[in-house]
Design a protein that fits this description.
Number of domains: 1
Strand content: 15-25%
Helix content: 25-40%
Number of helices: 7
CATH architecture: 3-Layer(aba) Sandwich
Radius of gyration: 18 Å
Largest sheet: 7 strands, parallel
Number of strands: 9
Strand order of the largest sheet: 3-4-2-5-6-1-7
Structural class: alpha/beta
CATH topology: Rossmann fold
Oligomer: single chain
CATH class: Alpha Beta
């Protein structure tokens, strides 16, 4: 499917330019991600998962809602903020929030998209920020970290609380490595999107004495 065929605002299509949707993106559209349906996208690194989250956020803004993009690391939050700012900055206001966890960051209410860590978002929820009720879409990058002993509990509580506070919240989970995708999708009440397409073929082999013995076909 061509980008130009998507039911999106012309300004978004102009930014996307020419090209075709990648497999996981097309599957997510068929599962209803542009209609506000929650989805869990499981596909390899660099397969186009982030764009699924971006399109969901842009659709939420079209409905007059805010969007939150949650990542596990401050460095990744800064990277995504820069990426979103460059690509979508002409269409919406984007904020980065990874600072003082004891701050309510009331100025964030002026922005359309907020990029933050799970710990920061958890703090904002606990501060009961007034703009929280305006959030329509939550994108969780690296959602497989729910199983992490360190960050997992914070992320699980955050998602649980937000779902309770915002019954109509759309959740888009993104990951390349989920061991139990069906179970997680069921917990999120989300449509499961699975795909194995990679932009570059992956070959597996064993390195011995300066040589690599490949014994499996490319995946």
């Amino acid at each position: 499917m061509q980008f130009s065929h998507l039911p999106l605002d012309k300004r978004i299509l102009d930014i996307l330019g020419k090209g075709e949707l990648r497999p996981c993106q097309e599957k997510a559209l068929k599962k209803g991600v542009l209609d506000g349906r929650s989805v869990l996208v499981c596909s390899p690194t660099a397969s186009g998962k982030t764009l699924v989250g971006e399109l969901a956020m842009l659709q939420a803004l079209k409905q007059g809602k805010k969007a939150i993009y949650v990542v596990p690391l401050i460095a990744l939050a800064s990277e995504k903020f820069k990426q979103f700012k460059e690509q979508w900055g002409s269409l919406c206001t984007i904020a980065l929030s990874v600072g003082d966890l004891d701050s309510s960051s009331t100025d964030l209410g002026r922005h359309d998209v907020i990029v933050c860590t799970a710990e920061k978002m958890d703090s904002l929820v606990r501060h009961q920020v007034k703009w929280l009720s305006d959030v329509g879409c939550l994108v969780v990058d690296e959602i497989h970290l729910l199983n992490d002993h360190g960050r997992g509990p914070v992320l699980e509580v955050l998602i649980t609380v937000l779902r309770r506070l915002l019954p109509k919240l759309q959740i888009v989970g993104l990951s390349a490595t989920i061991g139990n995708p069906e179970e997680l999708a069921d917990w999120l009440q989300a449509e499961l999107v699975r795909d194995t397409w990679r932009p570059v073929p992956l070959h597996q082999g064993v390195y011995v004495d300066g040589k690599i013995e490949f014994d499996q076909p490319a995946k």
